[in-house]
Amino acid sequence: MPVVVVDHPLITHKISILRDKTISAGKFRDLVAEITMLLTYEATRDLPMSETEVETPLCRARVKTLSKDDFVITPILRAGLGMVPAMLSIFPVAKVAHIGLERDEETTLPRTYYFNVPPELEGCTVILVDPMLATGGSLSAALDLIKERGAKSIKAICLIGAPEGRDRIERDHPDVSVYIGAMDERLNERAYIVPGLGDAGDRMFGTL
Ligand code: PRP
Ligand code: URA
Asked: Is the C-beta atom of 31 inside 6 A of ligand 2?
């Protein structure tokens, strides 16, 4: 079950608009935030709950709340940054780790240029965010890096993937669940997702 396509009309609708090359960077960012929220709803369905008590205006009531609040939102730079505000609106007390990875245009292999993550991740719930799962090289490398810091409870949220990336993550990291909004047909000769949405970072930050 590691890569789960979240098949929901709202997500599919918004991703269809996201693909349109004529939308502005601002519209692109807004949609990324909305889709991230919808995917997070599904990705967090199994979070553990604990019982506690609260005084309502009418009586004392037994209620349930999240058992843990040690979330570490971890965007893969750059494009993952566009998913952070939506995540923080849901998890306001979360820490934010940053992993800078960029694909070499020739080899398509990821290169790490920044790594700023809490020293100890054991006991935390790490949620990696990156809009695109193409070859899977970037997400796989990011997962290796956070596992070296002790992370055990890990999820990832992506917007669009390709079968090649799905297969790579299922092979390299079968313990990690990845929630994704759409699984596209294939990669092209430059390892871009087809039909995809182009370069997510460039579209998000207007650097086309
Ligand atoms: C994009 C994307 C992923 C990666 C996916 O980042 O945001 O991190 O490519 O490709 P992969 O699955 O083949 O590794 P990119 O390297 O273009 O950097 P950017 O976000 O800074 O534009
Ligand atoms: N990175 C992107 O931004 N888009 C793709 O299609 C593949 C990798």
From this structure: no
